[in-house]
Amino acid sequence: MQASNLPLTLLRKPSLPPLNNQNARVVPASASYFTGKPDFTDNLLTLQALLRKYQTLPTLTPSEAPRVAWRTLPQYRLQVGEPVRASKYHKIIEVLHRLNLIHPSLIPEDLAQAMQAYKRDINPYANVPRPGRIDEDGRAVGVGRRKASSAKVYLVEGDGEVLVNGKSLNSAFPRIHDRESALWALKATGRMDKYNVWALATGGGLTGQAESITLGLAKALLVHEPMLKPALRRAGCVTRDPRRVERKKPGHVKARKMPAWVKR
């Protein structure tokens, strides 16, 4: 049969049936889309893949690795917009700690960029305190704080004289516990009769002022003798105590105490 004798319906190019947009299915870019927390799952899988890829690189000991401040859980939740649990986010932190042990000079570019997304904008470990100095009069200055109190302590070599706001130690602190607390840095290091102390304490109560003098005195003592830092740390004089009185809540008698429950 010749082509000219064929029916017109056979000569036409067959056409595809029209697409039905109502039945079209959009395929997500990641399989984690079907999980409860897709962004968190993608982040965890990406870090685990990087760890498998670079786990053979030389590492440092935990004490030699650079200190990094990772994003807190509220910051990470705000970043991904998902209600991630603390136990789940801890898995990411564990992988980041392991990746941070890789020698800094051998970290690849893609790994450095992936880790940078989880670092805080400001690294508190990068702050270096200003070194203290002794003035021309032989005095070292230290500032301490506790609750609402603050104290500025001047320390100079002498015979053990102590003045607090221009008054003797017994007049400034009637309680023996406060007197011992104020001079605990000297007593713990055996320097009671080697230095004279002049302190200016403001704000708060007597206990807060005494403990603020403790911290300021320890800082001033470290200017004179930096080798005493391990002993002062063991005595608890180097780190500030951040505890404060918990506020009272509405409907409570105190911070946590509830009124007595009465049945009728």
Describe this structure in words.
It is a single chain. By secondary structure, this protein is α+β, with helices and mostly antiparallel strands. 36% of the residues lie in helices and 11% in strands. It is built from ten helices and five strands. The protein has helices at residues 8-11, 38-54, 73-80, 86-100, 109-116, 169-172, 176-182, 184-189, 206-224, 229-234; strands at residues 140-146, 149-157, 162-164, 167-168, 195-202. A five-stranded mixed sheet has the order 1-2-5-3-4. A hairpin with a 2-residue loop joins strand 1 and strand 2. Helix 2 (38-54) runs parallel beside helix 4 (86-100) and helix 7 runs parallel beside helix 9 (206-224). The longest helix is centred in the last third of the chain and has 19 residues, at 206-224. The radius of gyration is 33 Å and the shape is elongated.
Structural class, please? alpha+beta
- Gap from first CA to last CA: 105 Å
Q: Work out the number of β strands.
A: 5
Roughly what percent helix? 25-40%
Provide the descriptors you would attach to this structure in a database record.
264 residues; alpha+beta; elongated
Task: Chart the SSEs and their pairings.
Blueprint: H1 8-11, H2 38-54, H3 73-80, H4 86-100, H5 109-116, E1 140-146, E2 149-157, E3 162-164, E4 167-168, H6 169-172, H7 176-182, H8 184-189, E5 195-202, H9 206-224, H10 229-234
Parallel strand pairs: 3-5
Antiparallel strand pairs: 1-2, 2-5, 3-4
Helix pairs in contact: 2-4, 7-9
